[in-house]
Amino acid sequence: MSELLQATPICGRHRALNALMAPFGGWDMPIQYEGIIAEHSWCRTKASLFDICHMGEFLFQGDFEASGLEDVFTFSVKTIPVGRSRYGFLLNEQGGIIDDLIIFRLAEDKVMIVVNAATAPKDFAAIKERLRGGVFTDITADTGKLDIQGPLSRDVLTGLFGGDIATIPYFKFVTMTILGVEAIVSRTGYTGELGYEIFLPAAKVCELWDLLLKDERVKPAGLGARDVLRLEVGYSLYGSDIDEATTPLEAGLEGFVNFNKSFIGKEALLKAKEQGTARQKVAFEVAGRRSPRHHYEICSGGAVVGSVTSGVFSPMLGRGIGIGFVTPELASVGTPLIISHERVSMEATVCELPFFRGGSVRA
Q1: Radius of gyration of the chain measured on its C-alpha atoms
Q2: CA 131, CA 65: separation in Å to the nearest integer?
Q3: Three-class secondary structure of residue 177 per DSSP
Q4: 3 has pLDDT over 80
Q5: Span 263-272, mean pLDDT?
Q6: Are 253 and 236 within 8 A, CB to CB?
């Protein structure tokens, strides 16, 4: 039986552009238009437009502490200043990552929670179950989301919508009128480049897509280029690099966990910190242009010691790069590894993240 896929409002426009479409998180999404390498290069040098309408958005309004919202995530909600956002995790009792997400502080008593597409229904149920007050609403169906990313993205948006956009710092957002409706413009993204995420009513997202693509500096980009871009700067992909069987400690993401507050999964993480983890995320570079792939084996001394969770050819480095999990004693920078799959064998070396450090993200 074929998978019944959801479609974003822009799906017809992707097909009109002859995009290669494929399932992603239960959605019919564009993988590429003119090609992954070309779209990657355009984003690193100019401005790329991504359809991200598949992501999930929830609204919460109420007292953060009395409702229990403050204890739901690995970070504090009440300390996020209005107009700023924060990244972190929703965990299960074992400390596994139900999802990674960003919370936007809209008002003193109001936040928007942005989650991954494939996990959105599960996330909503998990958060709702933990709440004991407040108003919690799923606004995904009514919300459109476009990401414009690249060093020219600021110039593009200020030319269309005014100079106030140029003053938005990293991980801060403004609410403004775009195309006659209220929109959120956030200085965030998933590419390692200067960029913005724009949230607005789904009914207006096609009009905004068309308007942005009228600028010759802007081209559409698919999930293929997005995957290369995010891996070059070391961002994790939910469902590949992190999941419910993976803790932030194993994934090297402890910095997004505030152990000075309560949250579900804290006890499990504290125990793991004390006892140590059986595996640890590593980044590695391949000695050549071959691409390591998801589920390839990581070997050392003739034995399988882990597996690759993400891997691509990096245009910026001119070689294969990847991340995966190995036993802790093999996680030190400089450790040699072999990436293996059937008749494929690649020499690799553990390295630091990010792989690529020349992006414009904080420009």
Answers
A1: 21
A2: 10
A3: strand
A4: no
A5: 98
A6: yes
Residue appearing with tokens 């980044």: 283
CA atoms of 264 and 266, how far apart (whole Å): 6
What φ, ψ does residue 215 adopt, rounded to 5°?
Answer: -80, 125
- Number of C-alpha atoms within 13 angstroms, CB side, residue 254? 12
d(CA 341, CA 334): 22
The verdict on whether omega for the bond into residue 354 sits within 30 degrees of 0, i.e. cis, is: yes
Three-state DSSP at 343 gives coil
Q: Name the one residue in this structure whose structure tokens are 């400690």.
A: 249
* Residue among 151, 239, 251, 237 at smallest CA distance from 192: 151
Which among 119, 142, 140, 122 is positioned nearest to 130, based on CA atoms? 122
Q: Where are the beta strands (DSSP E) in the chain?
A: 6-7, 20-24, 27-32, 47-51, 56-61, 85-91, 97-107, 110-115, 135-138, 143-149, 173-178, 181-186, 195-201, 218-220, 280-286, 297-300, 303-314, 319-326, 336-341, 344-351
Decide if 292 contacts 320 (C-beta within 8 A).
yes
Domains in the chain with CATH codes: 6-52+141-232 (3.30.1360.120), 278-351 (2.40.30.110)
Q: Which residue, among 328, 222, 259, has the nearest Cα to 89 in the 3D structure?
A: 259
User: What φ, ψ does residue 214 adopt, rounded to 5°?
Assistant: -70, -20
Adjacent-strand bridge partners of 181: 178
196 confidence band (pLDDT: 50, 70, 90): very high
> Mean per-residue pLDDT for 212-228?
98
What is the reported pTM?
0.97
